[in-house]
Amino acid sequence: MYQPVFGMQAPPTFNSFPGYEGLLPGVSGGFHPPPPSQPFPTPVPMVQQDWSIPKLSEESVREAFISFASSQCCYSSGPARDGMITGIEQFNTYRYRLETFTESRKTEWTTKPYEGQTVNPFAQPPPGPWEMPVMAPVMFKDNRQELEIPNSQSVKSCDTCSATGRSRCAKCTGTGSITCFTCSGRGVGSAQDRCAPCSGTGRRMCSNCSGQGTKECTKCKGKRQLLSYIKLTVEWKNNVEDFVVEQSSGLNVTKLGEVSGKPLFKDTQPMVYPLTGFPHPGLVEAANKMVLKHRNNFSQTGRILQQQQSVELIPITKVAYQWKGKHYFYFVYGTESKVNAEDYPAKCCCVIL
Ligand SMILES: [Zn+2]
Ligand SMILES: [Zn+2]
Ligand SMILES: [Zn+2]
After folding, report:
1. Every domain of the chain and the residues it spans
2. Would the pTM of this model clear 0.85, i.e. be above it?
């Protein structure tokens, strides 16, 4: 039954808070650009070092190949064990990686069941989205936090249940009973006798509402009132982008995403300065473009907290071998010595491609 609720405060008008103008209920996510506060990046000189990787020996490429073959479902290890290696060639390549760690803040009007807490709407203007203190994030790790903006709260009656705390059961449409599924509501059993489960009434008690016809309102959890407030969602995201220098080994470049390389350079700053002094002009050009792109894109949608750039040398070795008079090849790549052998000669039929 409907009961009037007393002591309710008028909700604040939706666009009355400074910094939250135009934030409408039911419209998802007011996004807030951060105030400008980008520190000026400083260049980090690249130290010359030994950038070569020793060529893999015949034993080590064979060892990697044998462990690859034995890890595959029903590959015969014969070719890996006994194939005759005829050539070992290096196609090492560079990978530039830029990580931009950002924080963005979104607000929206929302409600939750009112638990009786003290609420003073309009007592003070609520703090702006970027004035809200938030937890210190772990750098370069995705995370999110939801917060209630102080002084944005007000209490209103639940519109879903008309402040009764209960809502009509959807299963029995409020009647408390449903049609008997044994007799399809006829009240008669298969032997033309009285249907036992429903005692011949043709209806059974609704189990969803225990025959009451109503259930606790899911929106206010039976509290009859809702706390209306501005929810702030803070999102931390690590945006990672790679550039890999092209190489002619024939190994698909997407394979390199699975492995790591020998670290040559790493630079972590609030904002990185484009690479200087790296001996590969194509990589430097791509890196500089990427730094500018990240700076433009990610300072529009949030605040850049940290950036990290790195250059790795990824070892790629192409091994040619003979097996039963035919020629094949495979790749050993990454510091993990991962193997790729598309034309492996002794796969059996159950191999999942
Ligand atoms: Zn029945
Ligand atoms: Zn029901
Ligand atoms: Zn309700």
Report:
1. 51-89+315-353
2. no
